[in-house]
# Entry
Amino acid sequence: MTDPVRVLLADDEHLIRGALAALLGLEDDLVVVAEAATGPEALAMARAHRPDVAVLDLQMPGADGVTVATSIREELPACRTMIVTGHGRPGHLKRALAAGVRGFVPKTVSAQRLAELIRTVHAGNRYVDPELAADAIAAGDSPLTAREAEVLECAADG
# Structure
């Protein structure tokens, strides 16, 4: 038997993170080696535990998942990164892919499917949710900078 895939889970919602950790822990070939609630904590946990795959929430306090993925890629090139999001806007997907993220999935995915996708990403493959990909293609390029889009998104969310 090969070594289990070492996973870092980062999500600021404690219930979601804890539930995912418990469900992924039921998989024979996956082990959650660290959890984090903020972007800086996720990066610190990645440095300390050197996971094979980091599953990062897109929106976390301190630094978003794409920013953390960029830092992980620079510091720990063997670690593959995935983004899970409840905010699958096209600009986020494009930024994530440009940062080297290997997986981009909505939070509506089941824990079983997430486990399969972690394995896919660990194997060196890429997975982008088809609906999110179609939305990104249909949206085209935005004239807004990443920061302008972020401010606009915050304003839309109230």
In short: The two ends are 50 Å apart (CA to CA). The beta strands are 5-10, 30-36, 53-57, 80-85, 103-106, 127-128. The chain has a mean pLDDT of 89.
